[in-house]
Amino acid sequence: MTAPEPSAQPTQPTPESEGVHEAARRDKMRKLIEMGVDPWGQRFDDRLLIGDIRARTGEIVFRKETGETIVPPSREAQPDLDFRKWLSEQGKGDLEGPKVRAAGRIVLHRDKGKLRFIDIQDWSGRLQLLVGQAQVGEESWKLAECCDLGDLVGVDGEFKYTKLGEPTIFAEKLHFLAKSVLPPPDKHAGLADPELRHRMRYLDLAYTEGVLPRFLSRTKVVASIRRTLNEQGYCEIEGPTLHTIAGGAAARPFITHHNTLDMQLYLRIALELHLKRLLVGGMERVYELGRVYRNEGISPKHNPEFTMLEVYQAYGNYETMMDLTENILCDAIRVLDGNFVRPWGDKQIDFTPPFQRKTYDELFREHTGIDPQDATSVKALAERIGFETAGKHPDVIKSEVFEEKVEDALVGPIFVTDYPASICPLTKRKTSNPAVAERFELFVHGMEVANAYTELNDPDLQEQLFRTQLAGQAADDSMAKMDTDFVRALKHAMPPAGGLGIGIDRLIMLLTNTQTIRDVILFPVLRPE
User: Fold this and answer.
1) What does DSSP assign to residue 302?
2) N or C: which end of the chain has fewer CB within 10 A?
3) Residue 425 in 3-state DSSP?
4) How would you write 343-390 as a 3-class SS string?
């Protein structure tokens, strides 16, 4: 009889199998309680991070019977080293190392009779423990017998090499810190279903290789952005997340209701208009790093809730913001690893400054072969692509063609500058050409990462643009939302300014070689179970 072929996709544990494992784990938990051990642990002071312990291999020595000490070679530096042979060549003596205290989750457990090898992991790394029955004593040995994969334990011991050259804590005492009553994902299958990984992010972080470092990298990048801006004199503020008008961007909002005031409110779709009010008030360099909400589709590049950086500088313009954007990205790369040539799927991105700069019209001509000022030819191309053009403003048609034919072809990083003014209602026009807006977007491999303007500060023109819908755009999709208070603020004189928006999630995707936005957001929006 032919044996059945193994399933191509590893199966997840069933509730029945989980129940069996949980019962066995709870039985061990009862044994801990009978031993007088709290299965949920207590305060555990003075532990060292595993990464810091591993960095102390230089303190490990081989002490000969004569008292002479030798620093052993490292297998990390010499992967082909036969450490056992090296030890035998040194004659009689012992390896010695520093006394350390560590804590972490058990991710590997191997029983060898009166020896147990346990790998523990914290957020800085992974390290092997050697638990010997004779070395730890009866109490700690019984405790080790109650350990399962996923449990949290602490250890006191000596950090040195095994006879095979593996950096290891030779345990002298174990401490139980928390029982995992449910089993971890299968070691080989892991969390095979992406939705399970996103839904149970706690398991994804604990057991999927590379996930925790990716989110720690995100934290480093966000901290770097704040540091770059703070060092240049920008002030971080916290704007309202509930708005009476959904303005500042072209997006459909989430709508909510305030019961006491009996009024409709919108979760913010942009940070812009409140930050610009602060420019009027005299806060000359201001930014916010915050969540925004757009009631739109979900894709590898889109999540309804995401993180935006918006920055405004009085007496600057969009060129000021180009320089700032480049500095922000380069500083972020430096805090990660300093590698300006970074992988992106099977390609690479070269972030070495300065970034390329080209105008919207230059790129349109380059990638379509059509004069962007020839509205008839642009319209004909749009219709060949399949776009509906009837009743649409020529610049709206050109914008649709640009998105279809140009954006995906941009490798970058490249600043696309000088957009058609009619599709940029919050942007100052070029004095030399009022048909062109002083705007840029930063593209990297077809993905928009940053958007910036020389900000419009003419209150009369701003009011006119708020009142005028662009031809072919639906009212609920346009940025032309009337905000009378914002116009009133502009009438009190907003300084000439540059403004910048950066999508933090997309930036993290690019810097960590992550292909979907859900893998850089800790808790993305999901359907209920």
Assistant:
1) B
2) N
3) coil
4) EECCEEEECCCCCEEEEHHHHHHHHHCCCCCCHHHHHHHHHHHCCCCC
Distance CA(317)–CA(116), nearest Å, equals 64
Dist. CA 371–CA 369, nearest whole Å: 7
Give the number of other CB atoms < 10 A from CB of residue 223: 12
Lay out the sheet containing 242-243: strands in order across.
Answer: 242-243, 263-267, 255-258
Cα(188)–Cα(499) distance, rounded to whole angstroms? 48
| Spatial CA neighbour of 400 closest among 387, 418, 384 | 387
Beta carbons within 10 angstroms of residue 511's beta carbon: 25
Quickly count: other Cβ atoms within 10 Å of residue 441's Cβ: 18
Q: Can you give the pLDDT at residue 477?
A: 53
| Structure token digits, residue 383 | 């219709």
Please choose, from the candidates 50, 162, 62, 27, the residue with its C-alpha nearest in 3D space to the C-alpha of residue 106.
50
- The Cα angle at residue 177 between residues 172 and 179, in degrees rounded to 5: 120
Q: Of 508, 486, 527, which Cα lies nearest the Cα of 270?
A: 486
**55-104 pLDDT tens trace:** 999 999 999 988 899 999 988 888 888 999 999 999 899 999 999 999 99
DSSP state letter for 79: T
Q: How many CB atoms lie within 10 A of CB 96?
A: 14
Cα–Cα–Cα angle for 312, 313, 318, nearest 5°?
85
Question: What are the contacts of 331-338 at 24+ separation with CB within 8 A?
Answer: 331/224, 331/225, 331/227, 331/228, 332/220, 332/221, 332/224, 332/225, 332/228, 332/507, 332/511, 333/511, 334/224, 335/220, 335/221, 335/223, 335/224, 336/217, 336/220, 336/221, 336/511
- Around 466, how many Cα atoms within 13 Å sit in the side-chain half-sphere? 20
- The structure's pTM equals 0.88
Helix ranges (H only) for 50-111 are 50-54, 83-89
DSSP designation for 427: B
Average pLDDT over residues 376-386: 91
Q: How far is residue 255's CA from residue 277's CA, in Å, rounded to a whole number?
A: 23
Q: For the chain, give the number of residues.
A: 529
Chain-centroid distance, C-alpha 425: 31
Contacts of 134 (CB under 8 A, 6+ apart): 114
- Cα–Cα distances in Å, from 249 out to 138, 342, 424, 451? 67, 31, 10, 11
User: Which tokens in the block code for residue 298?
Assistant: 């979900």
**Per DSSP, which regions of 214-304 are E strands?**
235-236, 242-243, 255-258, 263-267, 285-293
* Terminal C-alpha separation, the chain: 41
Tokens of 62: 């081989």
